[in-house]
Amino acid sequence: MEVSFAKEIEMLRLGAGETFHGEGILAITKAVLQAGVAYVGGYQGAPVSHLMDVLVQAKPYMDELGVHVEACANEASAAAMLGASIHYPLRGAVTWKSIVGTNVAADALSNLASPGVTGGALIVVGEDYGEGASVIQERTHAFALKSTLLLLDPRPELGAMVRMVEHGFALSEASNMPAILELRIRACHVRGRFECKDNRAPAVSTRQLMREPASFDYAKLSHPPVTLAHEKLKISERIPAARRYIVEHELNEFLPGTRDDVGIIVQGGLHNALVRALQQLGLADAFGEAELPMLVLNVTFPLVPDEITRFCVGKRAVLVVEEGAPEYIEHEILAALRRADIQTPVHGKDLLPAAGELNVEFLATGLIAFFERHLPAAALDAGRDWLGANAERRSAVAAALDRPLPARPPSFCIGCPERPVFSAITLAQQAVGPVHIAADIGCHAFATFEPFSLGHSILGYGMSLASRAGVSPVMERRVLSVMGDGGFWHNGLLTGVQSALFNGGDAVLVIMKNGYTSATGTQEIISTPDEDAKANAGDKQQSLVHSNQVIETTLKGLGVQWMRSVNSYEVTQMRKTVEEAFTTPFAGLKVIIAEGECQLERQRRIKPWIAGLLKSGQRVMRVKYGVDEDVCTGDHACIRLSACPTLTLKDNPDPLKVDPVATVIDGCVGCGLCGENAHAATLCPSFYRAEMIRNPKWHERLIGAWRRTFIGWMQAA
To answer: Which of 133, 300, 635, 711 qualifies as a cystine partner to 128, CB 3.0-4.6 A?
Structure first.
């Protein structure tokens, strides 16, 4: 990965007496080191990618501390690392994106939760329920309940978050339960400060090795019949121990207010949004001091019944602020109150949305409904005015527009090597007919949006080839699966390729070989071009993914007989290859490897190199494409076929024509897709290729001057 995290790494070195200023996810990373973690693993995913990205680059410092850091192949391998904490007093932390990552890790986590842990085990998950950053919308809460895992949901304030990391390890050790720490996107990116502590080198580490393994103990295995005893231990010992620790260390926060007749119980991660909503109602100030008492649940499983009942007793009503459905927390609160014969009315999902993100407006609406029932004298005019003004502004904006704003679906980066592949697939279907396309998670999933609209299913990272298995036998035409090299190594190799070969599947697989796991931040993988290839490249501006043949070698070793490697940007060749895959008499697995380096990484690699050349006065040539306005027909087929952000429209310079013409704006990286598409689809020949030279040689300046003079003579004539 070419992005440098040198500044962040230096912040990890802060010690006692120093103040950390920065983002929440980096504060979590620092807290993990302060807690004396011995090993860290994970698989990148928004919004927690930063944790592993920083630690991987901080390997020299991690070596100083004796902390082992491992970038794992997938979430399951990360979760399995926590097995080190079963026998040994080793604190371990792993991280991934939930809930999709937790689903992959489920087998390992369930087997870990059964015997429990000796050293603290902390799973930092990026919780994005309701925030639209994940392919599915589910809560981590259900998984924690299912497997009896501690669930921490810290209030989004850096000091509180750091405190919960440190207590998370200790709570895990006190209860022998692995702990999940869920962080929403706003918690990851909230900025603030906290007073640092010195980082703790673990007692047992890569610098202080264990001499002997633990003695054999069948009770530490996740295996019948001892698993039956584990299940009883969860209820009889582990959960009570966790509750004792929560109470003793006051992990859940009681925030007093000036009123005590009503109260609010809120998930820790939703606290900031709740306070903002109360502020709009005039019931809280800008510093978070609210008039209503709150019970902030920084630990959402297990709940402590005594805390619940003590907070609710004597109150006219209580509102539970919980995201999503089913309302697990609300149900447990109701059960605790009824068992204690406390009849305090409890509201929650009867006033708040059952699905989606609980933003400030939704919360304010629910709060007003709650107060109208139980605080009718409260002054709520400010809140109603604020909500009404928001609605008026939306109406005013809608009225000011003569038509709805055009849709702006997510799209590939400028110059992305995956865009031309989907252009080729679109063109190939003109010859072979429409085909069922099993899509996958990754950058290539953008092809499911307009203008390509290619993809019938997305069923998990690297699962595209496996997901076509039920379709292929009943489809007259062959089925196409698409996955990236990240998905191939994550899951696709075993669940897809191996299964297709074993079962003799007549399938077509396109592997986007861009050299990185790009969608999560361009992390390096086993098929990333090595540093020698980058340093020794004759033309450093070209894609280098062809220099790494691990994918090809692996496929050959498994027995793939039909395999083609094609430069992604060669649309005509890619189209022919796709057509061949669908028409060849060969009945086994057919793999097309689309080679093209991730454009983000390519630009990060070559920009410093070009800057160095320019600084030293050396000649630099940049390719750019353009459109001849006199030739452009104005049908815009080129735009529909490529969807490149730099290929857009402008007014036609010809006063006799009304249709706008295509144009290439600044930002073009010179990939050549627009011209390739025009050629492959036999569109109008309006595209031209220009070479922009900086620091030209003397003869190039002479030729340029002669050309300008000649063109001037011709124009005058």
So the answer is: 133
- Which residue is associated with the tokens 């697989």? 509
Token code pair at residue 358: 């609980």
Please report whether residue 408 resides in a domain. Answer: no
Say whether pLDDT at 42 is over 80: yes
The last residue of a domain, from among 341, 371, 400: 400
- pLDDT of res. 32: 96
Q: How far is CA 398 from the centre of its chain?
A: 32
Specify the CATH number for the domain of residue 380.
Answer: 3.40.50.920
Strands 262-267 and 661-664: unpaired
**Counting beta carbons within 10 angstroms of the beta carbon of residue 602, is it exposed (0 to 12), middle (13 to 18) or buried (19 or more)?**
buried
Beta strands in 609-698 (DSSP E): 620-627, 647-650, 661-664, 687-694
Residue 143 lies in a domain: yes
Give the helix/strand (H/E) hosting 595: strand 590-595
Mean pLDDT over 248-258 rounds to 94
Give the closest residue to 525 by CA, choosing from 569, 557, 484. Answer: 484
Q: What percent of the chain has pLDDT over 90?
A: 62
Decide if 462 contacts 453 (C-beta within 8 A).
no
The structure's pTM equals: 0.90
Contact between 627 and 686 (Cβ < 8 Å): yes
Residue 311: which H helix or E strand, with range?
Answer: helix 305-312
Residue 567: which of 554, 557, 577, 556 has the closest Cα? Answer: 577
Contacts of 61 (CB under 8 A, 6+ apart): 9, 12, 13
In whole angstroms, give the CA distance from residue 184 to residue 127: 5
* Whether residue 575 is found in the same domain as residue 632: no
Q: What is the mean pLDDT of residues 315-323?
A: 95
Q: Decide: residue 126, CB within 10 A, 0-12 exposed, 13-18 middle, 19+ buried.
A: buried
Q: What residue spans of 537-619 are helical by DSSP H?
A: 550-558, 571-583, 599-615
d(CA 542, CA 621): 13
Q: Tell me the C-alpha distance between 255 and 261, whole Å.
A: 14
Helices 271-280 and 360-374 sit at what angle, rounded to 10 degrees?
60
Q: Tens of pLDDT along 486-504?
A: 999 999 999 999 999 999 9
Asked whether residue 393 falls in the same domain as residue 438, the answer is no
Token output for 547? 């220099």
Separation of alpha carbons 528 and 526, rounded Å: 6
Tokens of residue 500, six digits:
């297709």
pLDDT value at 631 more than 90? no
Domain region containing 515: 419-603
What are 52-88's pLDDT values in tens digits? Answer: 999 999 999 999 999 999 999 999 999 999 999 999 9
Q: Does 126 map to a domain?
A: yes
Do 580 and 681 lie in one domain? The reply is no
Both 670 and 691 in one domain: the answer is yes
Contact (Cβ atoms closer than 8 angstroms) between residue 543 and residue 602: yes
206 domain-assigned: no
Look at strands 590-595 and 661-664 and give their pairing.
Answer: unpaired
Residue 577 contacts residue 681 (beta carbons within 8 Å) = no
Contacts of 606 (CB under 8 A, 6+ apart): 540, 541
